[in-house]
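User: Here's a structure from my thesis project, written as structure tokens. My advisor, Dr. K., wants to see whether a designed sequence matches the one we expressed. Can you design one independently, without my sequence as a hint?
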């Protein structure tokens, strides 16, 4: 099962890289994307005893993007928060409008990540604790995929962590203008 996940992940990574120059154009509502991810990961959250909170403005919060790829991004971020930060018992997902941007943040109250690891997390196969990640079924490609999808969307990935307090992963995307949203 690990091997087939690894191959799937490598294939998606190269597919995303192949399309890196093509910015996805569909009009996507982030509230619906995150609601989907939250429902999909609800069982894992319950299994780990972690509450998943979701705070968002009045929908829709539209961006131009690829729905499946955006689901992939937030699935990995929320799954990571549950797997590595679940000890904190709570994961908070929030969508905020900031000027012309939509910012999605995924925050956990787990052990956090030491500063020397933070810049390396999006490298292929990079894992802070290889044994722990392997136990969780991880291949270490999740954040590499996240980074490439966000880049293809001309967005920004931010990682902030305080060891002992938890981590926040955020994705900034430029929001479609309200006028454009009304026209659709
Ligand atoms: P996969 O995503 O393929 O299942 P993975 O989760 O191990 O595997 P990434 O998603 O790329 O791979 O994450 C890389 C590493 O970053 C993880 O192995 C873990 O060590 C660390 N990490 C990621 N998110 C967190 C978090 N919220 N708290 C603490 N460490 C984290
Ligand atoms: Mg992961």
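Assistant: Designed independently from the structure alone:
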């Amino acid at each position: 099962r690990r091997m087939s996940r690894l191959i799937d992940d490598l294939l998606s990574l190269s597919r995303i890289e192949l399309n890196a120059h093509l910015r996805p154009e569909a009009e996507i509502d982030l509230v619906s994307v995150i609601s989907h991810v939250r429902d999909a990961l609800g069982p894992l959250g319950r299994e780990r005893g972690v509450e998943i909170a979701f705070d968002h403005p009045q929908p829709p919060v539209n961006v131009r993007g690829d729905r499946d790829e955006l689901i992939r991004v937030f699935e990995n971020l929320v799954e990571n928060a549950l797997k590595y930060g679940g000890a904190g018992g709570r994961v908070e997902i929030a969508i905020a409008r900031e000027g012309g941007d939509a910012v999605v943040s995924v925050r956990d109250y787990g052990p956090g990540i030491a500063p020397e690891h933070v810049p390396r997390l999006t490298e292929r196969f990079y894992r802070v604790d290889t044994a722990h990640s392997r136990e969780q079924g991880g291949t270490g490609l999740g954040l590499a995929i996240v980074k490439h999808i966000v880049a293809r969307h001309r967005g920004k990935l931010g990682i902030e962590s305080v060891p002992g307090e938890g981590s926040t992963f955020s994705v900034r995307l430029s929001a479609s203008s309200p006028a454009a949203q009304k026209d659709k």
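When you compare it with your expressed construct, this may help: Helices lie at 2-18, 30-48, 67-85, 130-135, 142-152, 178-183.
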